[in-house]
Amino acid sequence: MRDQPSLPPPEAIPPDIGICEDCRRELFAPADRRYRYPFISCANCGPRFSILKQPPYQRGNTSLAAFKMCAQCAEEYDAPDGRRYRASTIACETCGPQVWLETPGDGDSPPLRGASAIEKARQFLAEGRIVAVKDTGGYRLLCDAANAEAVAELRRRKRRPDKPFAVMVGEMRVAEQLCRMGQAARDLLNAPQRPIVVLERRPDAPIAPEVSPAQNTLGVMLPYTGLHCLLLESAPNFPPALVVTSGNPNGEPLVKTDAEARQRLAPLADAILMHDLDIQTRCHDSVVRVFQGHAYPLRRARGYVPAPLRLAHKGVPLLATGGELKSTFCLTNQEYAFPGQHLHGGENQRTLRVFTEHIARLEDLLRIRPEAIACDLHPAYLSSRYARQRAEAEGLPLVRVQHHHAHIVSCMAEHQIPDDEPVIGVAFDRTGYSTEEGENWGGEFLLSTYTDFQRAYHLDDIPLPGGEQAVRHPWRQALAWLERAGIPWTQDLPPVQHVLRQGDRRTLQAIQRQMQSETTGQRSSSVGLLFDAVASLIGIRHEISYTGQAAMELEARVASHQFGLYPILITGEVIDPVLTIRRIVADLREGVPQGVIVARFHNTIAMMVHEGCRKIREERGIRRVVLSGCIWQNATLLGRAVETLRNDDFEVCFHRQVPPNDGGLALGQAVVAMHRLKG
């Protein structure tokens, strides 16, 4: 066993906290000495984790240590009756960090500083230009959310053609003009974490369609720093909402340093608003939805990390490396689990370097020395390769955990389900490495404990025509399901029309031969890919530019107050949707509106969940159901499934603290490993 340094208490490394109302009021009060100072904060708000060098959280251990307090700040720092007593981020215009604006291509022209820099950045934004802004966790790219040309140009430069952007608004009233919301959404928008909240967009919202193409939702957030408040200050002819997206070329990690920004953001931004407060840890914005009055996490990052989850059991210190690198990792010590922040980027060496940087940093801050490492079964994930290499180099046990078992256990751990209680785990995602080579799962009903699982029911597996190409091109999955359902590939069907429009008849013929042969390569039981197939089958989306695009656009078309169902077969352990596919094609040919077909399909999947769980309860007597996997980001499906199950006296557990997607995977891996090593 390794010698473990004493673990700092969880409060020693607090998450970043959005600007409080007191500081916001002072920011715009002409008589206040911090009037319009962009780094205003107090003991109740401000950056923490993103600027912390080492625990405990106090000024000398943060990036603010480089700024000597002026006499007035020092007096406030020592005054126990004030709001800035022992406030580690205390600063003012006299002694604190400063901002300046650099314009790529301006040569040796001196940059604008202070208020002039912020005002010039606002001018650029109002003119439809793109501005990179350094905040406390990294750089962001901003533009006018109502300016279609500006948003389209940002997409072109960032090489992000379709994936939705979030917007930041200066005040709650503006958010209410853009989206429909209840009190729970207002509370989340104004929460200390200041997450992006995904809400139903109003049809008349003054937002360019290019912000969130083919979606009926919009990700909205309020300012979380004084600098944001100043940038979004209401004024005539200034945009009420700004697109705010990560400052990085597509597929690369978030930019953190000024040198990186000058090199990597110059091609993306017309100006760069910088400051001299060093960022210690990159942090993306967190994303949540509202479900049943609570936050339903989609991305756990700024504001939530590194707050721990308390587990129902103790174990040796562990590192779990998650799935693909765009997910996250998790560290554990005793009864605490510390999920790391969301990591954006592709499967490349630059992202891997940032991944290892984040792990090393959190291990250092938490003083955790892993005594075992857990990873996904997939041998090609860079995160799994990292886990194998490190385990071998340090002589540590390596625990490989099946993808969907990890999903279910992550939710079990959140709910502190007893060790000896098996659950019905419904793991729906796009794809995950199975226990058999060449198979990919994604539509699983598992009998799960923390240690192990048994596959009870699963969606029928289907060939992946072209392997990974089938994941990126939903029309391939649509053709595969048509073939499986015995429906000829006639030219009236949208996926066939799409291929023929590309002049790709040879590909069509090759796929048909492949489908009819006995050996068709990779197979998948993925519910996510079934959603993609249906999106293509009815003409919504044939090609995707980001993961989950087809399924998201499918959900956006759901017609409300439609309760029809399609038939589905359950034979043995296999759930076969061929009857569903046949009825969808029949509805399509009869001219049934897209929204009605989509609603019936969602209802069918919810019914499938209920039927699978009901059969398991009859066989095993288990009534607790756990829902996890990226498909449960679909609020329509989640709502209908939860309601149907609860109406039949099932106890339903879904995520509240970590995402149902791969952002929660590492927590499940860690808990599985803890139990296996304990046994």
Detailed description of the structure:
Among the domains are: 7-301, DHBP synthase (Alpha-Beta Complex); 302-410 and 660-678, 2-Layer Sandwich (Nucleotidyltransferase, domain 5). The chain is built from 21 helices and 25 strands. Strands 1, 2, 3, 4, 5, 6, 7, 8, 9, 10, 11 and 12 form a 12-stranded mixed β-sheet that branches. Helix 11 packs across helix 21 (665-678), helix 13 packs across helix 15 (505-516) and helix 13 (474-484) crosses helix 16. The longest helix is centred in the C-terminal third of the chain and has 27 residues, at 594-620. It is globular.
User: What is the tally of helical segments?
Assistant: 21
Percentage of residues in strands: 15-25%
Share of helical residues: 25-40%
CATH architecture of the domain at 7-301: Alpha-Beta Complex
Main sheet, how many strands, which sense, barrel?
Answer: 12 strands, mixed
Q: Indicate the mean pLDDT.
A: 94
Measured distance between first and last alpha carbons: 16 Å
CATH third-tier fold name of the domain at 7-301 = DHBP synthase
Poorly predicted spans = none
Q: What form results from the Cα inertia axes?
A: globular
Specify the structural class. Answer: alpha/beta
* Radius of gyration, taken over Cα atoms and rounded to an integer in Å: 26 Å
